Amino acid sequence: MPLSYTLWHANQDLAIACLHHPFVQGIGDGTLPVEKFAYYVGQDAFFLEAFARAYSIAAAKAPTWEVFQVFHQLADGVLAELNLHSGYAQEWGVDLTTVTPGAATRRYTDFLLSTAWGQEPGATAVAMAPCMRLYAFLGQSLAKLSPPPHRYSPWIDTYSSDQFEPLAAQLEALIDDQAADSRSNQTAYRYAMECELAFFEAAWQG
After folding, report:
1. Can you tell me the distance from the alpha carbon of 33 to that of 71, in angstroms, rounded to the nearest whole number?
2. % residues pLDDT > 70 (the chain)
């Protein structure tokens, strides 16, 4: 089995926990209180900026021109997500320039950036892939429920779309090509998944 497949399936417990978290379920059926989603929008925008920077750092370390290009294509995908968040922010009055990252957000971004600066691109791909694959999984899982249109439908549409899935697959292909099946990479992947669950919990509590 490819390493990306092995890592994802070794962490299905956390993926399912994220899917069944009340924050994600509230997005799915449209019942999530607006103030909780507004908090999430601000935190996720801060996170995505760090995510884009980590891609850029990994690109600078890329061993080949092809790998360099893939990391930059993935960074472009993050910029598209940030544009979506800008629309959310305007709709709900969130000033993204004044967002202060919460503890869960900072824990996650510090991990990603320290990995990008200190590790090889393959290890960075391992640290970043859980976010991409998890959001594709969440979006596709919620879309299968075919909820009637509601205020969070654009979120579901974005992460269940034919445009997002290839980005997750691109990053997983980098894992399979560039990363080793090591204990450190297994640990990093699970840590990122734990950060995802903590991120939803912080938004639910926030």
Report:
1. 35
2. 99
Residue 114 in tokens: 């320290």
Q: How far apart are CA 47 and CA 155, in angstroms?
A: 16
Instruction: Look up residue 18 and give its amino acid.
Output: C
Count how many domains the chain has: 1
The pLDDT assigned to 25 comes to 98
Q: Identify how many contiguous H helices and E strands the chain contains and give both numbers.
A: 10, 0
Written as six digits, the tokens of 182 are 């090591």
Q: How far apart are CA 151 and CA 33, in angstroms?
A: 11
Angle between helices 121-143 and 34-60 (to 10 degrees): 150
Domain of 184 in residue numbering reads as 3-205
pTM above 0.85? yes
The first and second tokens of residue 12, run together, are: 């299905």
Q: Which two tokens stand for residue 133?
A: 């694959």
CATH number, position 133: 1.20.910.10
